[in-house]
Design brief:
Helix content is 28%, strand content 28%. The protein has 244 residues and is α/β, with parallel strands linked by helices. It has a domain of 170 residues: Rossmann fold. A seven-stranded mixed β-sheet has the order 6-7-8-3-9-10-13. Strands 2-1-4-5 form a four-stranded antiparallel β-sheet. It has a two-stranded antiparallel ribbon with strand order 11-12. The two termini are 22 Å apart.
Length: 244
């Protein structure tokens, strides 16, 4: 028995003027899914992410989240941006950044509960000791933990992550992936890094203007002594359990 659908993408296309970026995308995301969205640069991954976040509107087709329009449901979505796109010169400390996750369009002040939730997320990310530091003073892995804590402070039901391990050293990448695996949320991770396929994802959506969904992929057969061949893996993905 399949779990409830939390995101339903139906026949979605998007164009910038006369330039068609995405064409006839269909995807059902179920509660508890951990989906990797992969594809080439310029293939439409970023545009798809913006559609899910309500930053863009489909040219045709529709996206429903919990049965509602994206704009109505996006308070249920936590978003982890690439830290390289984050303003490192913000004159705030780590705790202030995490607390931003409690902001809503109607909220002007933080409550005691908001501060408690922020503290809890810092503890979960194991960065409570950094709460008074400025983000530019942190390592790449520490910064991503801060931004992840901010996204989780929103207490979302869905978490969307944009290249969460970009520009982070291998040890930091493993820490982030381990943290993500443990989160009991519906997760969509957008990445150019094939390594993400080994990190607990349940399905893979390949986007290159159109979307192809791959399910039940046994990536373990491609890993030997910690190494894998990306080309063999991609060939395997292309030939296995594919639906558009």
């Amino acid at each position: 028995m399949k779990k409830p659908i939390v995101i339903n993408v139906e026949n979605v296309s998007f164009s910038y003027g006369s330039h068609e970026v995405l064409k006839d995308l269909n995807l059902k995301v179920y509660e508890g899914d951990y989906i990797a969205v992969i594809g080439p640069n310029g293939g439409g991954k970023t545009t798809f992410t913006k559609l899910l976040l309500g930053l863009l509107t489909p040219t045709s087709g529709e996206i429903k989240i919990f049965g509602k329009e994206v704009i109505e449901a996006r308070q249920q979505i936590g978003y982890l941006p690439q830290y390289i796109n984050f303003n490192m010169d913000m004159p705030v400390n780590v705790f202030d950044i995490v607390l931003q996750g409690r902001l809503t369009p109607k909220k002007l002040f933080y409550s005691h509960e908001d501060k408690q939730i922020a503290h809890t997320q810092l503890e979960k990310m194991r960065i409570s000791h950094l709460k008074n530091r400025k983000i530019k003073e942190l390592s790449g892995g520490q910064r991503q933990r801060v931004l992840l804590a901010r996204a989780l402070a929103k207490q979302p039901k869905i978490l969307i992550l944009d290249e969460p391990t970009a520009s982070i050293d291998p040890e930091g990448q493993k820490d982030i992936y381990d943290l993500l695996k443990a989160l009991p949320l519906t997760k969509i991770i957008v990445s150019h890094d094939i390594q993400v396929l080994f990190e607990g994802v349940t399905r893979v959506a390949h986007i290159n203007k159109t979307l192809y969904l791959h399910e039940d992929i046994d990536t373990s057969i491609h890993r030997k002594d910690g190494h894998f061949c990306e080309m063999e893996l991609l060939d395997y993905i292309k030939s296995h359990t594919c639906s558009s």
